[in-house]
Amino acid sequence: MKKSQDNSLLTVKFIGSYVEDDLFLGFPTKKEVSLTSYEEAKNILSELKTISGGSIIANMYGYGEGGINGYKLNGNNKLTGAHGNKKSLESFIDFTNNESIKTFFNFNPVTFAEDSKGYSISKDAAVNVIDISAVVKQFNYSNGSERKKSAGGVSSVMVSRKLLPQSVNEAVEIADKFSITGMSFDTLGNYCYSDYESEVENAYYPLKTLMGADVEKIVGDISAKSKTVMLDGAFSYAAAAADIVTGSPANSAKFLSFDEEVPLYQIVFQGTKAISTSAINMAVNHRKQFLKAIETGSGLSFTVLANYNNDLRKQYMRGLNTAVYSDVKAEIEQYVSESKDFLNKVAGSAIKSHSYIAKDVTRTVFENGVSVVVNYSEQDFVSTDYGTVKALGFVAR
Predict the structure, then answer these.
(1) CA of 341: how far to CAs of 134, 286, 290, 330, 362, in Å?
(2) Closest CA relative to residue 396, chosen from 386, 382, 383
(3) pLDDT tens digits for 268-302?
(4) Long-range CB contacts for residues 173-181, cutoff 8 Å, separation at least 24
(5) Contact 362, 261 (CB under 8 A)
(6) pTM of the entire structure?
């Protein structure tokens, strides 16, 4: 890998819109509802730029048709809807360019639940070994049961592997239309699938293990078109090809009691590309998620929306009740203030070494000589070299 980006202090994922059930003359229908309009995103970014000192990334998620529900491929090749029209989109892009805010628009070129512009579920989907469309279902996190449509579940198909480059290229054409240079592809980085279509000439499509070669080429082609590529929650091969990696895993399931977790992604990628962990405000323990960013030198990450209503409880995307910007702003200010001096120092520096110096206490040394001790325990830790490291705190030098 070649060095492509330094970490930004703050990465913010904006949630654009969603689809809720509605009635029209007594008949069930659906309507798209804005969660964060382009105008609201501008206002929030103005405040966050001041808070972060300008070191900020904006990830625009759910701004295609259908929003976060993602019924259609690439949001049906649209970036307008309940969250704003063409004029408001152009105004937002002009604003972020003038303010030098790195901005990425997220596209889903892989899965779709309804016929989309130029793509049919029955004709353009990847097929399984018995030659029928391979269906992607959603499941409840709590008990593993299938999430029914009545509870916000969506059954999708995956685009044919031979059409994947074409699908991504059409998203690039949308970006070109609005002079967008930052592109984000979550599903491209975290879906790995076979395709048993009998007409496919390339025999390797049934082997999902070669998905990495496809993604590497696709990302390379996007980069060659003067685009910066962000991938969220990406598999290792996809992360290696991207410029910016968000939602990088930093926690293990801790099933093995004799093992300790190691921040492998950050050890590998820190210093070569911009990297951030999963959103602090969406984590079970906000403080420990913040400390993961400190331990690894990763950028801080938050997910925000401007408006919330109770219908969002039916959505498959969890934790949106914790993402209301008016509630999250103070927490962003607190964590940015506490960490900005340290994170700015190590933003472009690789991790030289990582170790446990006591139970629940880690030490990370960066190539530029800066080091940090992080104490995940509930008790203060006294170190000969670093002094007292408070419970759930850190000391850098």
Answers:
(1) 49, 20, 15, 18, 20
(2) 386
(3) 999 999 999 999 999 999 999 999 999 999 999 99
(4) 174/74, 174/77, 174/78, 174/79, 174/107, 175/105, 175/227, 176/225, 178/79, 178/89, 178/90, 178/93, 179/93, 180/93, 180/103, 180/105, 181/226, 181/227, 181/228
(5) no
(6) 0.93
